Amino acid sequence: MSKRLYIQDVATRDGFQIEASFVPTEDKIALIDRLSHTGLAKVEVTSFTSPKAIPNLRDAEEVMRGIQRVAGVEYTVLVPNVKGCERALSCAVDEINLVMSASDTHGLANLRMTPEQSLQQFAEIIEVTRGSGVFINASLSTTFGCPFEGEVAESRVQTLIQRLLDIGVQGVTLCDTTGMADPAQVERICRAALQRWPAAVFTAHFHNTRGMGLANALAALNAGIDRFDASLGGLGGCPYAPGASGNICTEDLVHMFQRMGLDTGVNLDALLEAAATLPDLIDHDVPGAILKAGKSDRRYPKPKWMQEAGL
User: Fold this and answer.
1) Which residue would you say has higher pLDDT here, 15 or 243?
2) Whole-number mean pLDDT of the chain?
């Protein structure tokens, strides 16, 4: 493959929102500014939700207005309702990300809305954005399985994608919310979506809950997906998968793609430098593998006995 791949980092939204402690506003801004200079295509900056619901992101306006925007990088935010949309538009965001579930039970548990109710709310939000030029993306949670209901019918997923596109959504993120997906399923669902809606913009979003995150990303790539969500250091997680690791790790994903000879546009060394700041920011270790082990071209000195023997 010679086509360009586009990587979006979601750490400062999807990662920071579930941390035990609040990351100071100035530290969020500094990290986003670092990420903006790594070659990432997009950064999910924050969420314009109620501070009571997600206190860790209560500084959404301050962060969005404080970052230094870099040409060629898109800055996206999560929006839960019309009020959040209006707040986001006042900060001149590039993209608004809406979230709904493909499963009734997960939708009610996570959003207190069924998919049908989410679609109705999305239509209201999209109406507010008319004329703004802001790109509208919708993340479809539990595309590859629900932690309460189990399998989600692929026909249901396709129906919901069509309804999202019908109301004016321009991009759809296919989300493996609790890491239930397997590579064969991922390739099948992603390939079907790309074939049925070739003009739509699809992104793949995987979690590494069961250790299959990078394998699923490779399956999505083989299906034709060229846009991927990932989280610096592997931050993130889901309250419905207790003890699980977070999103697939941005630097691990970029390392894999670059080892395969694929163009991500990302400076991996700069990305690793940004990832190295995370443990101090959040006061704990991060799951990322490349940060610990180094890139695969790292070389080690020979054992002392071999050096002494001239071997």
Assistant:
1) 15
2) 95
- Interatomic CA distance for residues 39 and 69, integer angstroms: 13
Band (pLDDT 50/70/90 cuts) for residue 50 is: very high
Is residue 203 classed exposed, middle or buried when 0-12, 13-18 and 19+ CB atoms within 10 A define those classes?
buried
Predicted confidence at residue 110, as pLDDT, reads 87
Taking a C-beta distance cutoff of 8 angstroms, is the pair 266, 230 a contact?
no
Task: Name residue 190's amino acid.
Answer: C
Which one, of 69, 71, 7, lies nearest residue 33 by Cα? 69
pLDDT above 60 (res 190): yes
The catalytic site residues sit at: 238
pLDDT of residue 12 exceeding 90: yes
Rounded distance between C-alpha atoms, residue 266 and residue 297, angstroms: 17
pLDDT of residue 3: 80
Instruction: List, in order, residues 6 or more apart from 238 with CB less than 8 Å away.
Output: 147, 177, 178, 207, 209, 244
3-state secondary structure the chain: CCCECEEEECHHHHHHHHCCCCCCHHHHHHHHHHHHCCCCCEEEEEECCCCCCCHHHCCHHHHHHHCCCCCCCEEEEECCCHHHHHHHHCCCCCEEEEEEECCHHHHHHHHCCCHHHHHHHHHHHHHHHCCCCCEEEEEEECCCCECCCECCCHHHHHHHHHHHHHCCCCEEEEECCCCCCCHHHHHHHHHHHHHHCCCCEEEEECECCCCCHHHHHHHHHHHCCCEEEEEHHHCCCCCCCCCCCCECEHHHHHHHHHHCCCECCCCHHHHHHHHCCHHHHHCCCCCCHHHHHCCCCCCCCCCHHHHHCCC
Distance of CA 123 to the CA centre of its chain: 23
Is the whole model's pTM more than 0.90, yes or no? Answer: yes
